[in-house]
Amino acid sequence: MKIPRLLDSKKVSETSPDRAVVPENVQVANKVNELVTVIGQSVVGQQQAETCQKQIAEAFEQSAFKAKQVAPFQDLDKDNNLSREELLEGLEKLLSENQIDSRINNPKAKKRIFQKIIIFILAILLIVFGFAMIIMPAPPSFELFTVFYFNPNDGITIMDLVSLLIIFGGVLLIVLNFNKK
């Protein structure tokens, strides 16, 4: 993949509308020129070159895809003779037709979903472990002190209170995990 040298801000003709340089594209052009210079000065293997070409092509495709998604909204914004109601209706129509969501387009969304699943599983394990500590009998040496007696042989021990804290921690993890911010 050859990167055209026309991206240099000095060589780009400002008279042609398709090659006009806007201030935000000057920075992109400068970075591309720096990349071309660095690649030209270094020794790059065939496999590494192919990998870099794929990454650069994917970045340009992603940029073009984002520009296509935003283009209808920019067209609506350029139409100055619309009333507020017409703008609102147009925006409502565009939002219903175009799926623009930062959570969907974010590459880290899958990682967040995976983290939420892991935290949910951990919370369920904590709750089950806490109930198991309460239900299953423990040796008398493990149950240290009885806080409240139901009868002379049974009551609420410190181990039961620790188990309740573990259950509360699991419930808290579930609530915090699914709390929308």
What does this structure look like?
There is one protein chain. 65% of the residues lie in helices and 6% in strands. It is mainly alpha-helical and 181 residues long. It has a domain of 70 residues. It has a two-stranded antiparallel ribbon with strand order 1-2. A hairpin with a 2-residue loop joins strand 1 and strand 2. The longest helix has 33 residues. The N terminus is likely disordered.
Short characterization:
By secondary structure, the protein is mainly alpha-helical. Helices cover 65% and strands 6% of the residues. It has a two-stranded antiparallel sheet.
Number of helices: 6
Q: How are the strands of the largest sheet arranged?
A: 1-2
The tally of strands reads 2
Helix content: 55-70%
What value does the average pLDDT take? 76
* Main pleated sheet: 2 strands, antiparallel
User: Between the first and last Cα atoms, what is the distance in angstroms?
Assistant: 43 Å
What's the shape? elongated
Spatial extent as radius of gyration: 31 Å
Strand content: 5-15%
What order do the SSEs take from the amino end to the carboxyl end, as H and E? HHHHHEEH
Structural class by sheet pairing and helices: mainly alpha
Low-confidence stretches: 1-21
Give the topology, please.
Layout: H1 23-41, H2 46-78, H3 84-97, H4 102-105, H5 109-135, E1 146-151, E2 154-157, H6 158-178
Antiparallel strand pairs: 1-2
Helix pairs in contact: 2-3, 5-6
Key phrases:
elongated, 181 residues, mainly alpha, disordered N terminus, two-stranded antiparallel ribbon, 2 strands
